[in-house]
Amino acid sequence: MSKDRNNMSFLDHLGELRWHLVRSSIAIFLFAVLAFLSKEIIFDVIIFGPKQMDFPTYTLFCWLSSLVGGDVFCFNEMPFELLNMRMSGQFQMHLWVSLVAGIIIAFPYVFWELWRFIQPGLLQNERKSSRGVLVFTTILFLFGVLFGYYVIVPLSVQFLGTYTVSSQIFNRIDLTSYISMVSSVTLATGILFQLPIVVYFLSKLGVVTPVLLKTYRRHAIVGILLLSAIITPPDIASQILVTFPVLILYQISIGVSRRVSKNRVKTKEA
User: Fold this and answer.
1) What is the structure's pLDDT at 1?
2) pLDDT value for 172
3) To 10 degrees, the CA torsion angle through 27, 30, 35, 36?
């Protein structure tokens, strides 16, 4: 029988949180094992997909660039090879990719476990206004992962894999470098797309307000541009493709914070 949350001590809360984290870890482990056993799909189809010329992003961007009379995104081959330089390199990458895949697949369940821990501490009106947070969090994470994988990763692979300073140099890229870039960018973009959810909870705590977000909008835009310049190839088209969705997320976050602030005012008046 579960204890009354109002009468639980700090150690009791830690004990309850521990079991939520344990169940989340088990879910990540199980999905990681599933990914480990599906290495042909994970590597040949997903990880090495952006290295193939028939990847959907390259086909789409080539078609779009041809409409405006250019061929910036049209090319015939990826002039680089992937090499494994360490005895245990492929096995270590297999483990790492399986873990990242486990985190991505289990993310909705992990957040659900954390939400189950947080929700009892909310007031009744806060619970009502927080309905659907699990669905929105999952959708945003999924969009972030897809955006990172289908936009940022292929743009980075195409630019960095084809860039040369001399015709005498041929790119032989270490397997660790390639896989780390694909996995970290994909996971990081999924987390980045959680910005509205983070702002929602910070607004609930009173740390963030819509006025604050509007005041520092210009600073945020500069930060977003710098972030886009770091994670994308140094060309205008790629940076715009990354900057535009993040700016939309920031604007959505302002709307989310405004709604939370209005609900807080209504609660105080009631």
Assistant:
1) 41
2) 85
3) 140
